[in-house]
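step=encode ok
step=design start
structure_in=
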């Protein structure tokens, strides 16, 4: 996939009819980036509604995230056992898919062992099952993820989170345990926008923001698909 800067400059070049390096650069890159973010957010719901699969290229991996230990009174979690160990992490805002579909993984740093997802309707029954008593469970409240740790996980310090985030540039990633978080880099990090959504974003920008005719948009899209492949 392309970086955020590659996408933005490519669209500006198209808007300037390929003359992006000329003296006429009145269209600011910041404005183009705003449009990309806006139409990506709009398009994500259309491309994933009615239970359609989420394109893996939309998913971002936050890496190895350190947990913060908290008191039960901080968590506001339902049915938390008094005296158990609770930790949390503050997460970027997920896309508002129904039933939490934007969260693709919340679990251990092996990236294959998930935590039980807290659900007020079934929490009691899950906790009373044989495996429910020995498994950690989490609750997402706003942008906080609270993790009620089982006895086996009492010393857990890090978790892994993957999902589809509302603003891909707002995330911090942790490459390894104990490292400082790395902010999203518009210049070097891949921006989660698969080809079909890039076409959607570009079409909307050209038609709605730059008043291109339908024929002009179609002409530009043919070139844009080839350009996207080269950027990726």
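sequence_out=
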């Amino acid at each position: 996939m392309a970086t955020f800067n590659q996408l933005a400059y490519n669209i500006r070049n198209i808007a300037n009819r390929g003359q992006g390096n000329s003296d006429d650069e009145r269209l600011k890159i910041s404005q183009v980036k705003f449009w990309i973010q806006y139409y990506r957010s709009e398009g994500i719901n259309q491309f994933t509604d009615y239970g359609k699969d989420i394109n893996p290229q939309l998913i971002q991996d936050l890496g190895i995230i350190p947990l913060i230990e908290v008191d039960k009174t901080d968590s506001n979690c339902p049915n938390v056992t008094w005296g158990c160990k609770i930790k949390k992490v503050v997460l970027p805002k997920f896309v508002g898919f129904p039933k939490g579909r934007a969260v693709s993984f919340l679990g251990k740093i092996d990236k294959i062992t998930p935590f039980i997802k807290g659900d007020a309707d079934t929490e009691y029954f899950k906790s009373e099952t044989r495996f429910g008593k020995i498994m950690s469970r989490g609750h997402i409240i706003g942008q906080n993820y609270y993790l009620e740790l089982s006895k086996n996980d009492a010393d857990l310090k890090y978790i892994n989170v993957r999902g589809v985030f509302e603003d891909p540039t707002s995330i911090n990633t942790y490459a390894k345990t104990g490292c400082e978080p790395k902010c999203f880099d518009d210049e070097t990090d891949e921006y989660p926008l698969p080809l079909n959504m890039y076409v959607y974003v570009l079409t909307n920008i050209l038609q709605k923001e730059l008043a291109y005719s339908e024929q002009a948009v179609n002409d530009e899209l043919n070139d844009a698909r080839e350009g996207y492949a080269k950027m990726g």
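step=design ok
step=annotate ok -> Residues 18-24, 120-126 have pLDDT under 50 and may be disordered.
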